Every structure is written in structure tokens, then in C-alpha cells.
Amino acid sequence: MKFDKTEKIIIPREGYKRNKRLFYDENEQLIGKPRPTEKQPEEQEKQTVEKPQKQPSVKKSKPNKNVPKWLYLLIPLLGLLLIGALLWSLSNPTSTDEQPKEQTEKTTTTEEPSNNVKQSSDDLEEAIQHASKSVVSVINVEKQQETFGDEAKSAPQANPEKAGVGSGVIYKKDEHHAFIVTNRHVIQGAENLEVTISNGKRHKATLKGQDEWTDLAVLTIDANAIDSTIKMRNSDEINVGETAIAIGSPLGQAFQGSVSRGIVSGLNRTVPVDTNNDGSDDWEANVLQTDAAINPGNSGGALIDESGKLIGISSMKISMDNVEGMNFAIPSNEVQKVVEQLEENGKLERMYLGVMSSDLSHIPEGTLREVLKLPEDLREGVLVSYVEESSHASRAGLKAKDVITALNDEPMKSVLQFKKYLYYEANPKDKLTITYYRDGKKNTVTVDPTEDE
Q1: 280 among known catalytic residues
Q2: Is 215 a known active-site residue?
């Protein structure tokens, strides 16, 4: 059945199903597909408002039924703990001040060494000033040769002339005299002796005693002229590397009281010495080595430690173009023993054998066994290198290449021990028994110092 839109009028019957309008004919049959009706403004507005509610993006998710209930209680608790920690850090000022405090403490710690250095420097300066008061200039005065007849008229007035200037150290004072130790070569050949003390005043000095082998001499001056004396340190306690300070009059009185500083470079050095200026060494001095400057005029002066105590008497130096800083001083312990005898006797009474020697430990192993033919277990002793004619050693039959191992049954392991025993322990008037090796055989011989009397 067809309908002509111009001939028949279709009576619409409105039906509502799920918000859609349906159309029927007069027989109530559905005609065509339903057309959407125009939405009223109200409906459009309503739909616009309700549409966002249907979007999944804004829907709240439902709790997961599988999560334990205690976890929901733990989360708020953690939040409370975090808030509490934040409030505590804001209210506690010590945490923010900790770093500056540490920095202040570190700054204080680094300042302490500088104070110690200043204090040490002040102490050293005070020690030097105090010791300098006990150091004097020693003036060796000789008279000019006298002239006679017509020569006397034309010659200038015969006045004493200064033969040399050295140094000395005031080490002792009693009721009448102050005692000064110096080197023997400073006062050798003097007609008159004078000393200039630290305040510049000059006093006449008297020679009390001297010893050629140790190169030491003792002078005395009026005790009233002296206020202080120097203290001696035990030189056996000195270590290499300690501070050593030389005080004296280098190059004469113009530089009196000059101070040079260095260290103790070596101990128990053995240095050959020509005591009689004949061009050959006839003595071996036991000295300590220092790089503190010792120049002509320093001889007889003080070598002190940083506390101002005397550790040696400046005595000699090695003067060579290619050598620097090799200076030597007589150790204070030896000085003490020598001056005591010089004060009492004016000289040293000692056992003198008349040998030059060296440490056996310095000899190569091949020489010990092949040349000297010594036993394998013998490594310490005193090797005789030279025997002086008409000496006690020569009369006893000792020869070069003999190895001395004992004196009066006392083992001798080094030259230093050998000399100390002869000079300070052996009685120069008593017999001395010497144990020695020659060509690998052990021998003994007795020296009688009274034979040449």
C-alpha cells in the first residue's frame, strides 16, 4: 500500500519508549524509522549537565577488598611521624649550630701550634741570651821583639801586639775565681792573656792548665767580674738532628757574641789531628759534628742546645773548596773530665801508648780474613795502623796490623772505647795488660809506664 503525501494526511500517534517518538498509521502500524525529535532547550541543558556524571574519568574508584585493613591504619600513623619530625627539626637549634661549632673548634685547634711555635721561639731566644753572657773573647797577646842601640831611637815604641783572638766559655765560679775553658791553640805562645766579657769590659786572665792532645785549656779571671756561668749537658744523651747553636767571636772582637744555628750532624767522629804542626797526624780527636757555622775566632766558643746548655766546645772545621758545613766540637762530657784535671794538676796525666788506630768494624771482610787472618767470629776490636818509635807500645813489641781486643781484660770494641779507657780509667803509673791478635793468633803483652823513668 502506497501513500501519496499529497492525497492522504497521516495522523501521527505519538508513542514514547525510551525517550524516542514513534509514528503509526490509521491501522496502528509502525511507519518508517523513528526520527529524533528536536530537543527542547530544557532537555539539552539537562543532558549537558548529566553527561559529565556518566564519564568514567570522574568516577571514584572503589576500595580493593583484598587490601588488609591494618594498612589503612598505618598510613595516617606514618604521616603523623613525618609531621612530628619536621616540627622537632624546626624547634631544635643545636642541629643548625653544629657545623659552625665544629668549624670554631677546628680553628682553635689550628691556632694552638702557632702559639707553641711562638713560645718555642721565645724560649730559644731567652736560652741564647742567657748562654751568651757566659761566652767571652780570648785575646792572645805577644810582645814585640826588643830593639837596642840606634835601632831603638828609630823604632816605634815597643807595645804588645795582638797575636790572635778566639773564644772561651765561663763554666764555673768560686769565691775567688771564675773558670774559663777554651782551645789550647787559642792561647798557645801567649805572653799575656786577656778576656772581654759580654758587657764589653776587658780583664786580665791567668792560664791554669792546658792539654795538647785534647786541645783544651783553662783560664781564670776575678770572680767579681762574672755574674753567671753556663750549665753543661750530658753529651752522651745528644741525638743526631738536635738543634746546635754556636756562639763566639768569629773573625775577632768586632763580631763578639755572634750566633749561628744548625743541627748535630754526627756523634763520636774520629778526626786525625796534627798537634805539633809537623805535617803528619799524631792524634785522633773524638768530636761531634755540626753544620752550625764555625769560623776563625769561634775556636773555644760554646756549642749549645736549644735549652742553652753546653754540649761542646767549638774546635775545628774542614776548610776545602768543595766542602761546606763540616764543623766539629769537643763533647761536653770529655770537656768536663779534662778541665777537672787541668784545674787540679795543670795538665792531664794519662796512659799514652803511642799508636794510631781505627775501628775493626770499618775494615772489609776480605781483609779481615785474608790479610789479618782473624777468626770468623772476631768482628770488633782496634786495628793498630801505626806505632810511634820509642813509645810504650813500641817497647812492648806492638806492630802495625795488630788487632787489640782487650785492655786489662776489659773488651775493646771501638777506638772511642779504647781511648776513653786509656785516658780516663787506666792509671798512668800502673802496668797495662794488652790482648791482641797477630796473624790470626791471640797474644798478650804487658806495658810498664815506669820503664822510661
Answers
A1: no
A2: yes
**CA 183 – CA 294 distance, rounded (Å):** 13
Homologous superfamily, domain 235-345: Trypsin-like serine proteases (2.40.10.10)
Q: How far apart are CA 430 and CA 117, in angstroms?
A: 55
| Position 146 confidence tier, pLDDT thresholds 50, 70, 90 | very low
Exactly one of 132, 134, 299, 332 is catalytic; which is it? 299
3-state SS assignment for residue 56: helix
Contact of 447 with 396, CB cutoff 8 Å:
yes
| Of the candidates 190, 135, 126, the residue with the CA atom closest to the CA atom of residue 168 | 135
- In this prediction the pTM is 0.60
Q: State the Cα–Cα distance between residues 87 and 84, nearest whole angstrom.
A: 5
Query: Out of 215, 291, 305, 402, which one is annotated catalytic?
Result: 215
pLDDT tens digit sequence for 123-140: 889 999 999 999 999 998
Place of cell 523513528: 34
Give φ, ψ of 197 to 5 degrees.
-85, 180
Please state which of the four CATH numbers 1.10.3660.10, 1.10.3720.10, 2.30.42.10, 1.10.150.20 is assigned to the domain occupying 355-447.
Answer: 2.30.42.10
